[in-house]
């Protein structure tokens, strides 16, 4: 029987990366001082699962490193070692390294061996030095966990002279890539084992499925082994097997089971339940789950991701991994249904006579159901923004330390949900903004105290829904933008004229210009001037919008407005001749009917339009796209003022139609990208309408103008 | 006509044929997804004229190519009788779906590879690169198209200024 392990690689990597995220979170909470056993257990479980998986798949480097890390974590877990800042730092770096190693393995790229060896050696050094001064309890135990030491303080009492293990694997154990032999071999490394196999469940040969595990084992471990060590061996198959542990030999003095149960319930899910409780473990676990959830929702969520405890698995409400493609397919079908439904409604509208009214009522009901269905499907793609926010505590800690600044991070609205695609693309711009706030915004403690501000700076990240958009705010209470410096720098670089006076808004917008930086010294954090323009471009690409508010001495706030989803766009339908185009509402500044005195011609052919103090070029869409228009006279049609990348033009169209939300379909799937088009969509009558990409339209217009003028010059 | 019903040697392949301006063309039947009536298209600006536009095929945007225009034959106004053959083709980036407008669908023939003759010089009427070969069926000549190349060349064609 050969099993192709490669098919499980993706799952392993996905789960490992998630697990590392929760490990990082737990480590950060540890560093904040509340070293509780649950956090340490979470971290331990992550390392252990990754080790097990990496060993199974033959990623020996990862397995070897994680093994050493696990040894260190085991000492923490057993209370033999204190959690201090230095240790947490090492663990965080290990976390990063594991992420890199896994990434390199996943993409089959070589890994920098020297760094792995260096950190490996560092951990081994820690293991070698401080291991001889055991600390009885985990320090800084939270007050609520006072009863916990009953289970945590077990080191001497935890060992027995031996264990009887009844190990009954589930039938699918082999299919999931686990090998019982490997487990037995690992057990044998702990102490001498006596293994007896029970083959009574093996079916007759005709019914035998070679991929099903029908054997079970009775194992006697003869030696003083910790229960946790045995459980650790089976950790990887927990939930896939029936495992009974029974101690034999002299048992230490122990609290009565009732007291134990209380103690465990009052504390946290403890992996090392006292042995006496083990046969009754499932009910305790069930009793634990709800309390645990109520007690610390966030920690529970983090723990649930990494936990292999059955209680946590039952408590996370149940979720499945579904590929984005399947969801998009579903979304497509629903979109088609919506169109069919609206075609039906149009057909039913003019009907007269018997039953026509009832038909229309039924169709109305159908429409409501369709809307609900569409919204539900959309929601499937939504994820809370905490997925992005969660990386900031680490960033703040690292950067703050390096720059010698004291900064507190306040997150709010992290349950606000966003489309997964938007979420993935907003991460980097937000990181950039927060780095900027740390580096340029927040002052050093001395400067802050001198300015009469508390030494601790505050960076606030806030997300909330507003009118079909998601607003994300990055706020700091630092020095604010230096208006004069920005103006001076902009004049120096010729971005604005020497005497030009600008409104507040436009001054702050200057920092989005490519290569713009007022930093005196270029650091590796920021100051190179690459960044803000990229931030703005990324957000604009998402169909979003950035705004800056700043008060000198008080701080700055960057407000990002994002669409809820990339699958749907708020569009304005506009007609040119017989064609209908969708213009993204986010690009439209206003739409006006042109008066004669507002238009003037330049170089005999092009027209410019005067809007207040600006002169805007007029883009005739029919000319650009080669369509037969209804109107060619500017005074007959309408001018949509659209903006992209800071450029404004007037887009001349025949007529505006309705505004509606449209589902964006890619042109590239079966065709190819076209400059000036962002995609296509289906209108209510099933017709295809093209969605304009305003930056592309402007770009196309400019290249056409250049061609015309060179042609004229040539003539 | 009845050749499709006989049991054929394995290496013969079936071709769906259609008529365009009096000529008969064939495409491998395995790349034909469906045959549709004309439901109108939306023109995509700045693309060659033979690219009639894009249509909605159950929620997916699919380009539609007019074979008469592609081969430089006399144009015919698309209307109720126009037939669109939806084909799946492969290019370097994977599978694509496209619609081809033809005058009428004709037959399904089985053609043995031995019966496919190399394309003679057709002059400029039909792009020889898009023709895989010729075959004779019941004293008619059928041009077998290299549909992958035909559709890809249409999609990748340069934009009209």
Structural account:
- The complex is a heterodimer of chains A (715) and B (161).
- Chain A has 715 residues and is of the alpha+beta class.
- A 6-stranded mixed β-sheet of chain A has the order 14-18-19-17-16-15. Chain A has a 5-stranded mixed β-sheet with strand order 6-8-9-11-10.
- In chain A, a hairpin with a 3-residue loop joins strand 15 (599-602) and strand 16 (606-611).
- In chain A, helix 1 packs antiparallel against helix 4 (85-106) and helix 11 packs across helix 12 (297-306).
- Residues 132-159 and 251-315 of chain A have low confidence and may be disordered.
- The longest helix of chain B has 10 residues, at 147-156.
- Chain B has one domain (2-156): OB fold (Dihydrolipoamide Acetyltransferase, E2P) (Beta Barrel), CATH 2.40.50.
- In chain B, strands 8-1-2-10-9 form a 5-stranded mixed β-sheet, with no helix packed on it.
- Chain B has helices at residues 67-70, 147-156, and strands at 13-20, 23-28, 32-37, 51-57, 60-66, 83-91, 94-102, 104-111, 131-137, 140-145.
- Chain B is mostly beta strands and 161 residues long.
- Helices cover 9% and strands 45% of the residues of chain B.
- Chain A binds chain B through residues 332-333, 335-336, 579, 624-627, 665-667, 669-672, 674-677, 679-680, 682, 686-690, 704, 707, and chain B through 39-47, 53-56, 58-63, 96-98, 155-156, 159-161.
């Amino acid at each position: 029987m050969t099993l192709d392990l490669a098919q499980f690689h993706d799952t392993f990597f996905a789960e490992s990366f998630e697990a590392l995220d929760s490990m990082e979170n737990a480590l950060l909470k540890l560093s904040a001082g509340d070293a509780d056993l649950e956090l340490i257990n979470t971290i331990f479980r992550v390392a252990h699962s990754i080790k097990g998986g990496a060993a199974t798949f033959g990623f020996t480097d990862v397995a070897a490193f994680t093994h050493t890390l696990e040894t260190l974590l085991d000492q923490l877990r057993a209370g033999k070692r204190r959690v201090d800042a230095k240790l947490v730092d090492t663990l965080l770096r290990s976390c990063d390294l594991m992420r890199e190693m896994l990434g390199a393995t996943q993409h089959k790229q070589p890994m920098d061996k020297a760094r792995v060896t260096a950190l490996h050696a560092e951990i081994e050094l820690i293991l070698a030095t401080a291991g001889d001064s055991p600390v009885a309890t985990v320090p800084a135990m939270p007050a609520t966990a006072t009863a916990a030491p009953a289970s945590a303080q077990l080191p001497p009492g935890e060992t027995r002279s031996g264990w009887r293990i009844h190990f009954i694997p589930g039938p699918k154990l082999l299919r999931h890539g686990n090998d019982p032999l490997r487990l037995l071999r690992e057990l044998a490394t702990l102490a001498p084992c006596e293994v007896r196999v029970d083959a009574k469940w093996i079916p007759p040969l005709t019914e035998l499925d070679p991929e099903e595990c029908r054997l079970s084992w009775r194992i006697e471990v003869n030696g003083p082994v910790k229960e946790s060590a045995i459980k650790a061996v089976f950790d990887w198959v927990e939930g896939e097997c029936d495992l009974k542990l029974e101690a034999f030999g002299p048992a230490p003095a122990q609290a009565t089971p009732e007291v134990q149960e209380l103690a465990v319930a009052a504390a946290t899910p403890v992996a090392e339940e006292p042995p006496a409780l083990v046969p009754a473990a499932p009910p305790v676990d069930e009793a634990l789950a709800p309390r645990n959830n109520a007690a610390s929702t966030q920690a529970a969520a983090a723990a649930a991701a990494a936990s292999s405890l059955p209680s946590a698995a039952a408590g996370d409400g149940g979720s499945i991994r579904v590929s984005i493609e399947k969801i998009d397919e579903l979304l497509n079908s629903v979109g088609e249904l919506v169109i069919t439904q609206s075609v039906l409604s149009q057909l039913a509208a003019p009907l007269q006579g018997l039953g026509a009214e009832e038909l229309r009522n039924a169709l109305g009901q159908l429409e409501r159901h369709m809307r609900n269905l569409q919204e539900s499907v959309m929601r499937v793609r939504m994820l809370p923004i905490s997925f992005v926010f969660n990386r900031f505590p680490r960033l703040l800690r690292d950067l703050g330390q390096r720059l010698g600044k004291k900064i507190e991070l306040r997150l709010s609205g992290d349950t606000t949900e966003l489309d997964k695609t938007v979420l993935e693309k907003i991460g980097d711009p937000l990181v950039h903004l927060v780095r900027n706030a740390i580096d340029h915004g927040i002052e050093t403690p001395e400067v802050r105290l001198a300015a009469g501000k508390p030494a601790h700076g505050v960076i606030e990240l806030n997300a909330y829904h507003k009118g079909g958009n998601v607003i994300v705010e990055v706020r700091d209470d630092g020095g604010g933008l230096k208006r004069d410096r920005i103006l001076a720098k902009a004049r120096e670089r010729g971005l604005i004229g020497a005497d030009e006076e600008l409104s507040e808004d436009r001054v702050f917008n200057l920092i989005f210009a490519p290569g713009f930086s007022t930093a005196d010294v270029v650091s590796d954090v920021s100051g190179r001037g690459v960044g803000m323009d990229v931030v703005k471009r990324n957000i604009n690409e998402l169909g979003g919008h950035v705004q800056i508010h700043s008060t000198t001495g008080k701080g700055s706030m960057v407000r990002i407005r994002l669409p809820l989803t990339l699958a749907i766009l708020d569009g304005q339908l506009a007609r040119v001749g017989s064609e209908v185009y969708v213009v993204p509402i986010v690009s439209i500044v206003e739409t006006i009917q042109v008066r004669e005195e507002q238009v003037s011609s330049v170089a005999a052919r092009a027209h410019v339009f005067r809007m207040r103090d600006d002169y805007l070029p007029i883009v005739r869409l029919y000319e650009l796209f080669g369509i037969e228009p209804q109107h060619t006279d500017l005074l007959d049609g309408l001018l949509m003022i659209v903006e992209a990348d800071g450029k404004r033009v007037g887009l001349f169209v025949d007529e505006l139609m309705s505004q509606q939300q449209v589902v964006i379909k890619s042109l590239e799937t079966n065709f190819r990208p076209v400059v000036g088009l962002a995609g296509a969509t289906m209108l209510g009558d099933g017709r295809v309408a093209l969605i304009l990409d305003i930056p592309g339209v402007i770009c196309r217009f400019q290249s056409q103008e250049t061609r015309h003028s060179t042609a004229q010059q040539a003539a | 006509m009845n050749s499709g019903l006989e049991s054929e040697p394995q290496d013969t392949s079936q071709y769906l044929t259609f008529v365009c301006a009096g000529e008969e063309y064939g495409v491998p039947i395995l790349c034909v997804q469906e045959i549709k009536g004309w439901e109108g298209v939306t023109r995509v600006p700045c693309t060659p004229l033979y690219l009639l536009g894009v249509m909605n095929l159950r929620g997916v945007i699919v380009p539609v190519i007019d074979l008469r225009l592609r081969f430089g034959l006399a144009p015919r106004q698309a209307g109720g009788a126009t037939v669109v053959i939806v084909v799946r083709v492969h290019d370097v980036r994977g599978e694509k779906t496209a619609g081809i407008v033809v005058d009428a669908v004709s037959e399904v023939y089985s053609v043995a590879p031995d019966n496919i003759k190399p394309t003679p010089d057709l002059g400029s009427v039909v792009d020889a690169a898009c023709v895989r070969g010729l075959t004779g069926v019941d004293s008619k000549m059928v041009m077998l198209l290299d549909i992958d190349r035909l559709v890809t060349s249409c999609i990748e064609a340069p934009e009209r200024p």
